[in-house]
## 1
Amino acid sequence: QTPLEFPGELVENWEQKSVEKMGDLLGKYRSLRVYLDSCVKCGACTDKCHYFLGTSDPKNMPVARQDLLRSVYRHHYTPVGKFFAKMGWQWGSDMIGARPMTREVLDEWYSYFHQCSQCRRCSVFCPYGIDTADISMAAREIMDSVGYGQKYCNEIIAKVYKIGNNL
C-alpha cells in the first residue's frame, strides 16, 4: 500500500481495512490477543497512569483505553461477538462490550491512544502483566494503516517512502 499524500485522509473501505489490520496484528503478535482476553478490570493500573491522574478522564485509565480496542476485537474476532453481529442482536453485543469499527470509534481511538506516552508504568503494576503500551501501539498502527495517524508522523513516513529521505 502506498503512503497517502494527505495525512488524515482515510483510505477507501477503511472500516474493513482497519479490521483486517487488527487481524494481521493478532496473528503476528500472540501477546496482543492474550492481553485483550485476560484483563479482569481490577484497576491496579488506574492510579499509575500520569495521563489519567492529570485529566481525571475515565477513558484515560489504562484499562478503559484497552477497552476501546477490546470492544472492536470482541465484535470482529471472538466467536460470541461474531454470532451477535451476524444475528444483528445489538443487546448481545452491548452485553459483552463489543462494537463495530465506526468513525466514532476511530475518533475515540485517535484521542485516547495518542494520549498514552507508552511509559509502561501501568504494566509494572498489572497483576497479569498486560502491556497497555503494546495495545496502544497496535491501535496506532491500525489508525496509520487507514490514513488516520498523526499528521507529523505520516508526513515523515510518506517522505521516506516517496523520496527515500525524511527531509
Note: The CA atoms of residues 20 and 68 lie 17 Å apart.
## 2
Amino acid sequence: MNTKKMVFGSLAVFAGFEIMDYIIHGVILSPVYAQLANLWRPDMMSKMWLMALSTLVMSVMFVYIFIKGYENKGIAEGLRFGIVAGLFMNFIGMFSQYVMYPIPFSLAFTWFIFGMFEFSVAGIIAALIYKPAKKN
C-alpha cells in the first residue's frame, strides 16, 4: 500500500465531500431546511465540528477500502466503487431518516440522490489519486 497516496487521497476525498456538502446543504437545500427549522437542534451549528470529524473518518475508510480492492482499472473502477459505497451508506441511511424523523419523503429522496452523486465523485477522486507505488 502506498501510504503517502492513501493519506493524500483521503484528504482529497474529504475536501471533495466538504465542498459538495457546502453546495448541497448550505446552498441548494438551505430553503428546505429553513422550512423545517423546528426539526433541527437549536445548537446544531456548535456541533458541526463533529460532522466534519465523521466525514474525515469516513473519507479515510472509503479510500482504505478502495485501496484494498484496487484493480488498477482507472476512473471506471472508482465510479463503480463510489456507486456501491454510496448505495451502502445512503440507501439505508437516508430512508431510515425518513422513517425516524418527520421529514418529507422528497427530502430523504433528495439526500439519497445527492449522496449517490457525492460518493460517485469520491470514487473518481480516489481512482485518480491512488496508484500503487511502482516496483523496480
Note: Helices lie at 3-28, 30-35, 48-68, 75-100, 105-129.
